[in-house]
Amino acid sequence: MKNEVLEGTIVRKEMKKMKKFVIIALSLVLVVSLVTSCAKTTPTAKKPTLGLVLSTLTNPFFVTLLDGAQEEAKTSGVTLIAMDSQNDSAKEASNIEDLISRKVDAILVNPTDADAVVPSIKKANDANIPVITIDRAANGGVVVSHIASDNVAGGKMAAEFLGKALNGKGKVVELQGIAGTSAARDRGTGFDTTMAKEFPDIQIIARQTADFDRAKGLSVFENILTAQPMIDGVFAQNDEMVLGAIQAAEAAKRTGITFVGYDAVDDAITAIKGGKLAATVQQQPAVMGKLGVETAVNALNGQTVDKFIPVPLNLVTKENTP
User: Fold this and answer.
1) Are 173 and 233 in contact (CB under 8 A)?
2) Which of 13, 30, 95, 283 is most buried, judged by most C-beta within 10 A?
3) How many angstroms from the chain centroid is the CA of residue 169?
4) Which residues on neighbouring strands pair with residue 174, listed in sequence order?
5) Are 259 and 246 in contact (CB under 8 A)?
6) How many CA atoms lie within 13 A of 8 on its CB side?
7) How many other C-beta atoms are found inside a 10 Å radius of the C-beta of residue 218?
8) Apex CA 215: angle with CA 213 and CA 220, to 5°?
9) Cα–Cα distance between 65 and 96 in angstroms, integer?
10) Do residues 268 and 259 touch, judged by C-beta distance below 8 A?
11) The pLDDT of residue 45
């Protein structure tokens, strides 16, 4: 009888232990289930998508700008959609409308024309998509930030170098960029104002548009060479045009001309080292692209960004070529 009571007590104790084990096990299963359920229902953070609309990708300057933007996009973990407007305002408008329809989180644009881009920027504003301009500004619409070199200062820098190189006297030609772009306007303003103020004995004998294009720089300068028997210096508002002008001068066997460009693209640096180009105003397109993506990400994260973010300039000559 005593043995039966003892065995019953042991059985009851073991059953209590098993109940506790089952309760603990069921509790653990419930906790795991709740955690798994929460993990499934909690949405993952959406990776931002940025649109980058460039005026052209036939110009090495903007290819380098794109490289800088793509590198920063990888670092920041965002998706970057790049589009080429082929120096066509209508194509640019179509590109921006495409990005709006794709509901990108922000649009970075390098305008082909400061006025023509305004309606597209306003459409992005209406869609609550922040817009950032790079290298070239827009004349309207709400822009979160503008990232560029001080092109007026760059034009002044070019004028000061050329004026001193010519000892304050001579005849100069100015090759202008795409009419309507802020870059062409500002570089021209800086150059013309400085020449008139600081070098009154230098005469600008021709100002002609060559659309920031090497082939056009060549053909336009060919015509100027025919019309002007004496040319002492040339300032082109970008390197592509000045490299075309150098080709034209070489073909015409015209020597003694001091050439100054703008951008410091690789071919221009090579021309400086070879003694064909006297100087170029160095911009930093890769930095512009990087800052564009960085600024867009900061704005999307609710941070306050500067309305204008300047990118430093430098004058490159044979003495300081990289």
Assistant:
1) yes
2) 283
3) 37
4) 207, 235
5) yes
6) 5
7) 20
8) 90
9) 18
10) no
11) 56
Is 147 within 8 Å of 291 (Cβ atoms)? Answer: yes
Instruction: Return d(Cα 116, Cα 184) in angstroms, integer.
Output: 15
Can you read off the two tokens belonging to residue 255?
A: 């020597």
Pair 206, 170: CB distance under 8 Å: no
Cα gap 173→40, rounded to integer Å: 68
Nearest to 232 by CA among 289, 308, 172: 172
May I ask the CATH class of domain 43-143+285-311? alpha beta
Within 13 A of 67's CA, how many CA atoms are on the CB side?
A: 9
Question: pLDDT value at position 23?
Answer: 44
Q: Which CATH architecture has domain 151-282?
A: 3-Layer(aba) Sandwich (3.40)
Q: Report the 10 Å Cβ neighbour count for 113.
A: 21
pLDDT tens-digit series, residues 78-88: 999 999 999 99
pLDDT in tens, 8-52: 443 344 444 444 444 444 344 433 444 444 444 444 457 899 999
Arithmetic mean of pLDDT, 233-256: 98
Boundaries of every domain in the chain: 43-143+285-311, 151-282
d(CA 53, CA 63) in angstroms, rounded, equals 12
